[in-house]
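Our preliminary data section would be incomplete without showing what the modeling component actually yields. Below, a chain of 325 amino acids is followed by its predicted structure, encoded as tokens that our downstream tools consume directly.
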Amino acid sequence: MTKPRIFIPHRIAESALALLGERCTLDYRDIEEKLDDAAFFAGLEQADGLMIYSRHKISADVLDRAPRLRIVSNIAVGYDNLDLNELTARGIMATNTPDVLTETTADLTFALLMAAARRIPEADRYVKDGRWNEWLPSLMLGKDVHGAVIGIVGMGRIGEAVARRAKGFGMRILYHNRTRKEEAERSLGAEYAGLDDLLRRSDYVVVMTPLTPETTGLIGERELAFMKPDAILINTSRGRVVDEQALIHALSERRIAGAGLDVYAVEPVSRDNPLLSMPNVVTLPHIGSATRETRENMALKAARNMLAGLFGERPENLLNPSVFS
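Predicted structure:
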């Protein structure tokens, strides 16, 4: 029996590679950089399975070049890079890797909140630039986190993990979600709020919702106008959930105090993006899940999803179950 062929166009954890190699033929590229289109399309031509990070966009045009493809295993919890309707129409399974990155991404989210609140990157530059000549009472005044109000927009797994951290800081927790999370309300003391109400009351607004047609531009000019002048916006979900131009205007006009961003409308972010020159904005290079342990666990979960799909079992994290049924 011919082994199924998996195309992996970038470096993944060796443990995941070994797991796949036991049962499949691998077309593996041990590189960090994104393949150019010609090399990527060449690899797709003979692939039964494709394992990718979310930087690869899988559209109808791409799928036209993959006549044998049976499954796409995304090494990410988000899957807005996948045209799920097109994959389903062609009978191609799609999977993602939830759960394993929840706590790691929540760590990063709360670290970003703390860094923006206490102006940590700005203070670090101040010292390293040799500008710290004396202690002053007003030097690098920040904003308290303990006892403040945090508003979480999108109370999924990661949102709840952020709320657990906020509870440890004695924060009052508001949340907005498509559905009420009664268990979170009981265990965390979280309060459900409409989006406008949450924006008005929160000292920190943390955006945790996935990118969908409904959430694209969810936080725009109108929504930012509801926020307090001393509030800080944190986004570790997807860049396009926030209207980036509206955010730039709100920050430059000091209608909100600051922002902490791990994601952007276009990635990598352009060097001339005004956000990069704003001292009240902390900017990270999309590293929400970037720990060695978590990236290995993500790759292993993606590998298990891949093997299940290729060998007739239902993948644990199947995004389009109608294809399997």
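Residues 292-310 form the longest helix (19 residues). The CA atoms of residues 143 and 325 lie 52 Å apart. Preliminary results of this kind motivate Aim 1 of the renewal.
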